[in-house]
């Protein structure tokens, strides 16, 4: 009997008990590889070597699968110990969130749209609120802080994922193409930015994240009520 790419046979894979955890893990894997739009119940069942109807013994529908997938992503985000100061905690959490969203680009479009959040999602948001409230944030200011931090994290990640370059060489190629096509005398400031900043040795767009995050956190710190 021919072996599968992972070294198992169809029979040995079929003998692995089907659980909700397996369904969700496989759904995340497929979405990571092919995008969320390609995820169907039939395709998921095929990847698990089961009949499509077997999935419904573990999940009610695709909406429940999406809820579970989002919860798995939230579970990957680091929630630092409460002994840290709030800025350090928010910085680590934001960095971890960006890393998780980069690993699972499909999650950006669905993380905030779930009407039935799972335990990891609830724990995540409760941690954010609790950390800020203990640091002296009023409830409205804590809500504002979470909104602006997440808007920055999600927006930066979305932009980074859609850039037309992901290495120094591809950045060089894109920049060279722009400089060749545009009249540099008509766009002096853009030309300066490309030549004297983006093309300097060691430049990486990802490094912009920490700079912008510090601006956000510093601004929130200034908004804190005086003790």
Can you characterise this structure?
The termini are far apart. The mean pLDDT is 89. 63% of the residues lie in helices and 0% in strands. With 227 residues, the chain is mainly α. The chain has 2 domains: 10-59, Arc Repressor Mutant, subunit A, CATH 1.10.10.60; 71-223, Tetracycline Repressor, domain 2 (Orthogonal Bundle). Helix 6 (86-103) runs antiparallel to helix 11.
Structural descriptors:
227 residues; mainly alpha; Arc Repressor Mutant, subunit A; Tetracycline Repressor, domain 2; 2 domains; 11 helices; 63% helix; 0% strand; flat
CATH topology of the largest domain: Tetracycline Repressor, domain 2
Taking the alpha carbons of the first and last residues, their distance comes to: 72 Å
Structural class: mainly alpha
Mean pLDDT: 89
Describe the main β-sheet briefly: none
Q: Determine the fraction of residues in helical runs and give it as a percent range.
A: 55-70%
The CATH class of the largest domain is Mainly Alpha
Whole-number tally of structural domains: 2
Fraction of residues in β-strands = under 5%
SSE string, helix = H, strand = E?
A: HHHHHHHHHHH
Shape label = flat
Record field, number of beta strands: 0
CATH architecture of the largest domain: Orthogonal Bundle
Summary, kept brief:
About 65% of the residues lie in helices and about 0% in strands. The protein is built from 11 helices and no strands. The longest helix is centred in the middle third of the chain and has 23 residues, at about 140-160.
